[in-house]
């Protein structure tokens, strides 16, 4: 973690985190469940490793976001308020594609899937210079724990890069999540990628 102080009052400091992620990930079959994609299950068949450059991501942490431990494909994780969590995941290739993943999120919220046309018409935010779809959903969230969470919300975006995809998703009680709309978008737009030949 690097701390960079600008010409701001001493009680306010701009925080920037830098973490290098090994991008030699497994190819992720589209049929994989969320548990299998994020390493919580070993039932999926072994898949070939993708040889690629290592990837470094940097970001600016919004005020009040508490960093949490990371691992696997999680590049970053933050606790927000009492029950909300934001996760940044880095996957190889398209990670299953925009339509499949946005509709997977909608399914987690108990919502009907969107058509390809509706997904193409979603608002965009710029992440790493790429116009990326921005989603905002409310409903009853059922994540990998299987426990339904009524009156929850989800903010998310998916940035498709030439060799990898970045998923940013914030979930939690609706009042906490929706109050973070501006901070979430600012965080996503703060992401930067550096590549090395390592």
Explain what this protein looks like in three dimensions:
By secondary structure, the protein is an alpha+beta fold. It has a single domain (2-6, 13-195), classed as Protein Transport Mog1p, Chain A (3-Layer(aba) Sandwich). It contains five helices and eleven strands; from the N terminus they run E-E-H-E-E-E-E-H-H-E-E-E-E-H-H-E. It has helices at residues 34-37, 98-108, 116-120, 174-178, 181-190, and strands at residues 2-4, 14-21, 55-60, 65-67, 74-80, 84-92, 124-127, 130-142, 148-160, 164-173, 192-195. A hairpin with a 3-residue loop joins strand 9 and strand 10. It is globular, with a radius of gyration of 17 Å.
Brief synopsis:
This protein is α+β, with helices and mostly antiparallel strands. It is 18% helix and 40% strand.
As a whole number of angstroms, the C-alpha radius of gyration is 17 Å
Provide the CATH top-level class: Alpha Beta
Task: Give me the secondary-structure category.
Answer: alpha+beta
CATH topology: Protein Transport Mog1p, Chain A
Mean pLDDT: 79
Question: How many angstroms does the end-to-end distance come to?
Answer: 20 Å
Helix/strand layout:
Elements: E1 2-4, E2 14-21, H1 34-37, E3 55-60, E4 65-67, E5 74-80, E6 84-92, H2 98-108, H3 116-120, E7 124-127, E8 130-142, E9 148-160, E10 164-173, H4 174-178, H5 181-190, E11 192-195
Antiparallel strand pairs: 1-2, 2-3, 3-11, 4-5, 5-6, 6-10, 7-8, 8-9, 9-10
Which key phrases capture this entry?
198 residues, alpha+beta, seven-stranded antiparallel β-sheet, 40% strand, four-stranded antiparallel β-sheet, disordered N terminus, 5 helices, 18% helix, Protein Transport Mog1p, Chain A, globular
């Amino acid at each position: 973690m690097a701390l960079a102080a600008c010409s701001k009052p001493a009680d306010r400091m701009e925080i920037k985190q830098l973490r290098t992620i090994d991008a030699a990930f497994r190819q992720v079959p589209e049929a994989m469940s969320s548990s299998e994609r994020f390493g919580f299950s070993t039932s999926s068949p072994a898949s070939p490793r993708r040889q690629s450059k290592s990837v470094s991501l940097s970001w600016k942490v919004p005020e009040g976001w508490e960093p949490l431990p990371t691992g696997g494909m999680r590049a970053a994780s933050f606790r927000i308020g009492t029950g909300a969590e934001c996760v940044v995941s880095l996957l190889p290739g398209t990670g299953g594609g925009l339509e499949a993943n946005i509709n997977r999120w909608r399914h987690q919220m108990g919502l009907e899937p969107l058509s390809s046309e509706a997904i193409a018409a979603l608002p965009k935010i710029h992440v790493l210079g790429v116009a990326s779809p921005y989603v905002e959903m409310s409903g009853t969230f059922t994540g990998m724990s299987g426990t339904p969470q009524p009156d929850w919300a989800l903010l998310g975006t998916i940035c498709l890069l030439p060799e990898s995809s970045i998923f940013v998703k914030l979930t939690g009680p609706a009042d906490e999540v929706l109050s973070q709309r501006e901070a979430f978008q600012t965080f996503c737009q703060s992401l930067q990628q550096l590549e090395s030949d390592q």
